[in-house]
Each structure stands twice: as structure tokens, then as C-alpha cells.
Amino acid sequence: MNCISCKKPNEKNLIVITKFWIVTLSRNQAYLGRGYITSKRHCNNLSELKPDEWSELHDLIKKLEYTLEKAFNATMFNWTCLMNVAYQESPPNPHVHWHFRPRYDHTVEIAGKQFNDPEFGHHYSRKREQSITPTVREIIIHKIKQHL
Ligand SMILES: [Zn+2]
Question: Which of 26, 50, 65, 123 has CA 20 to 30 A from 34's CA?
């Protein structure tokens, strides 16, 4: 079955590839540093993850929270594993991935562009979008990689 998450990630958005996971930056930077951690193998749900995969995921979460605090002074993080879109297809074919959204109680400026979190302290907005130029994307990825 065709699975978009099994395809090679777009190099432009790639942050890091580990033994079991692929970390990429989202095109929508409404939450500065927003990205995905995607399982390298096609795995339908969290209960199918193996202990080694959980262990590495734990390490990755620790590293990402650390580097996003260092890079942008992120205040806290929203981690979600949703996979709802896969169930819009019949039959569904979900592929385990996590969304991470750093949250901010302050404005961050990168190359003259301002990033705000007007919903801070509340559920993230699914509708707010912020696109970025290739230059700003490179700066964001560079800053995230500095402490990974
Ligand atoms: Zn897949």
C-alpha cells in the first residue's frame, strides 16, 4: 500500500536521521521550531513500537527539548501522536509519527521575522499558518542542529 511517510524525507526540511526515527521541520512555522518525528519503519500504531524504538524516541525528545530551549528559549512543548488523516482513507494505513510544537510566552525574531504564540497556555491552533523563506528555514534548522 502507498504510504507517504515511507518515502524519503525532503532534504530541505531534514533535521536529523537516527537509527529508528527521522526528524523534520514543518513547512508551517506558526509555532517556531515545529516539526515531526517519524518512524523509519512502517508501523501502524504506538503499541507496535519496540523497546529500542521507545528508548531512542525518549533520547530524541530530551535532545529536541534541550536544543529548542537553547536555540529559541522555548517555554514548553506540545507533543502529539494523532494520525487522524490516515483514517480519511479506506482502508486506513497509518504510519507512526509525532508532532512537536514548541510553545512560547514571548516573541522570537529570526532574520527580521517575528514568531508569536498568541494561544500560549491553551491548546495550539490548527488553523494558524506561518510560512518561511528558504533562508529563514536554513537558519532555524541550523540553530536546532547546534545542540542536538
Ligand atoms: Zn509508511
Answer: 50
- Give 124 Cα–ligand 1 centroid separation in angstroms: 26
**HSE value, Cβ hemisphere, 13 Å, CA-based, for 32:** 30
Kindly list the domain boundaries of the chain, sorted by start residue: 4-145
Q: Which residues does the chain have with pLDDT short of 70?
A: 1
The CATH classification number of 4-145 equals 3.30.428.10
Ligand 1 mean position, distance from CA 50 (Å): 16
C-alpha grid cell for residue 137? 528555514
Distance from residue 12's CA to the centre of ligand 1 (Å): 20
pLDDT tens digits, residue range 89-118? 999 999 999 999 999 999 999 999 999 999
Residue 9 CA to residue 106 CA, distance in Å, equals 31
Sign of the torsion formed by the C-alpha atoms of 124, 90, 96 and 41: negative
